[in-house]
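Case study 2.
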Amino acid sequence: MTGSLTSPPVPPPVRGEPPQPGFARRHWTSIAPVVALVALIVAFSLMDSRFFQYENALNILRQSSVLLVLAMASTVVIMMGSIDLSVGSMLSFTAFTGALMVQNTGTTSLLLLLPVIGMACGLLNGVLVAYGRLPSFLVTLGTMYAFDGLAKYIAGGRPVSLRPGGVGDLFNTTVGGFPVVVLWALLVLVVAVLAARYTRLGRYMYAMGGNEKAARLSGVPAARYKVYAFLIAGLLAGIAGLLQLARARSASPDMGEPFLLPAIAAVVMGGTPLSGGVGGPFRTVTGVLIIAILGNGMVIAAVDPFLQNVIQGLVVIAAVALTIDRRKMSLVK
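Prediction:
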């Protein structure tokens, strides 16, 4: 259910019944993203020898860290069949609020409040979706504009710089030459994978994604756990805002905009359908790496920046078309 390739042995077909699909067909949504990832690595390595180097691998990991955390936020919500279009705006809002608080008070420890601010934003989404009985698509589309507009109103549309030193350095340094921001992103990934596999929250989110009505009739408090999911998404978006602010040393009201579609695309490309119920955080890693490696490889190959956007869009469509499970396609709840 969470992306493992192990499964019980398939019994031999009974006379008169259609044959069972083979291993590759049964696990196509898990295998295809990995094949695509390996193909990209091989292709870019053949195109330019600088791609397959340790320094460039660190660069890819550093560039994909914030996207990985934000994609985890999207995964949590998509697993239960909903969607959160406001994760990028929450990143912008929390990062901008943190930079402004430090600028006005000179206290960098206030940056640790950014995940809490993100949770407040997620709580608003969750309450409106779960108890207001509103579609998550429309609610988060509205809050996306609201968070963006609020950040621009407070800032007057101007970026705010973050002074060096203090807590911000905890997220923008290296340990033995390895970027700390990557370690923070990996910590988020491990916690997300364990929570999805071994906690009641994870099991309930898969159950609601598979069939929300059946889950509710089985005793799952669906409304409460929807709020929890959006709350966690807000928490992760706040962490992503903190990491991005520490990396960039400045915040602008629209800094989260480039992350929104790649975060959702990474989830679907990794094998978690928008209808929810299967997939999970571990699969999202593959989608994040595909997007990061594609972007990095095209820069090294000196592909025209405008053409890069075209290629990225086509690859995302192709990857989703190859990996999506059409049996589970339905309207996003």
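The beta strands are 160-161, 174-175, 178-179, 250-251.
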